[in-house]
Design goal:
Helix content: 40-55%
Number of helices: 14
Number of domains: 3
Oligomer: single chain
Radius of gyration: 27 Å
Shape: elongated
Distance between the termini: 101 Å
Strand order of the largest sheet: 1-2
């Protein structure tokens, strides 16, 4: 009788371990998605992008994986994840996952998160063309295909973007982009973030803004390009609202740079004559669309401009900040002071500053 008791105590835990190991083995081999067939082409090997929210339980992640066609049975995936302890160590973020990735590899990826080598950071304020170049340098994303999609009105409509171009909606963020990713997948990923953030910010305002969503993104792109000091975003937005309210031209230098198709060190007087609907020195109102891709902070500032600001003008001091003025006379005095300071510091004639925003 004693021998039987001792044997049962020894066999019980061992049996559980063996059964768990067998269960893991069966799940890994029976429920992993099939590998992409050899010679199936680039589309079959293209990564699938998956967003894992912060604090998401393993079962929710498993359902997302199943919805993306990356696992066959989310319940079994969850079971294995709990056995190996992944359910307590899931890293939030954007994942780029190759179809055919095994269960244990997926669980390991969720534990460690995407490698920095698989990620690319898109800074605020880049144009679509600059973004395309960065993505090509990082992951070989097809620049021509990327820009073709950005400029396709039908594709923009399919993504619920209220514009003929996706300029301004390629949200600046850190993304998981594997080498060989398709341009369409990357564009969809970035725009989905941009549309989501725009809707979030619009939902937070107490009253509907006096402009359309597209006009808000357009103005936010100008604020993004002008505000080198983040503390000035809301004030710069207020200046532009004031100018629009008074029927004045915006006279924003970054719109001229966009019209020129380059980023000059400084805008010259002859540049202000460029014939383009984006030249806000020649045209009244907002340009027809964004001039770069603004981040969340620029959208927030545009939707909540600094209250009580009477300023209609501002000029760069040369240190990343601006001098704001309520009248043209004050503005001209500010320009003279800044030019004098620049000339004195350089020991010679200072760099010409355009008398902007008149």
């Amino acid at each position: 009788m004693r021998k039987l008791v001792r044997r049962s105590r020894w066999v019980g835990p061992g049996t559980l371990v063996v059964l768990a190991a067998v269960a893991v083995f069966l799940v890994v081999h029976e429920f992993s998605p099939p590998e992409a067939p050899a010679g199936a082409g680039a589309g079959a090997r293209a990564p699938v992008y998956l967003d894992v929210p912060r604090g998401a339980p393993l079962r929710e992640v498993a359902d997302r994986l199943a919805g993306a066609g990356l696992v066959r049975n989310p319940a079994l995936f969850t079971l294995v994840g709990r056995i190996v302890g992944t359910d307590r160590h899931i890293k939030a973020g954007e994942y780029a996952i190759r179809p055919g990735t095994g269960v244990l590899d997926l669980l390991g990826l969720l534990r460690r998160g995407m490698s920095s080598l698989d990620q690319v950071t898109i800074p605020e304020g880049l144009t679509a063309r600059e973004t395309a170049r960065l993505l090509y340098a990082h992951a070989g994303v097809d620049t021509v295909a990327f820009l073709r999609l950005v400029r396709d009105p039908a594709f923009a409509a399919s993504l619920e973007v209220p514009a003929a171009s996706l300029e301004g909606y390629l949200f600046p963020e850190t993304y998981a982009v594997l080498r060989g990713s398709r341009a369409e997948d990357v564009v969809r990923l970035m725009v989905s973030h941009g549309v989501r953030v725009l809707h979030e910010e619009l939902s937070r305002v107490s009253s509907p803004p006096p402009y359309t969503a597209h006009e808000i993104v357009t103005l936010a792109s100008i604020v993004e390009a002008e505000a080198h000091d983040p503390r000035e975003r809301a004030r710069i937005a207020a200046v532009y609202y004031n100018r629009l309210h008074h029927g004045m031209r915006l006279q924003a230098d970054p719109t001229v740079a966009y019209a020129l198709g380059r980023r000059p060190d400084r805008i010259l007087l002859r540049d202000l004559e460029v014939d383009s609907p984006y030249n806000t020195y020649r045209n009244y109102g907002l340009p027809p669309g964004p001039i770069c891709n603004p981040g969340r902070a620029a959208l927030e500032a545009t939707l909540a401009p600094e209250p009580g600001t009477r300023a209609l003008y501002f000029v760069a001091r040369g240190d990343g900040t601006h001098q704001f003025s309520a009248t043209l006379r004050e503005h001209e005095r500010a320009i003279a002071r800044i030019r004098g300071a620049v000339a004195e510091a350089a020991g010679a004639g200072g760099a010409a500053l355009p008398e902007a925003r008149r």
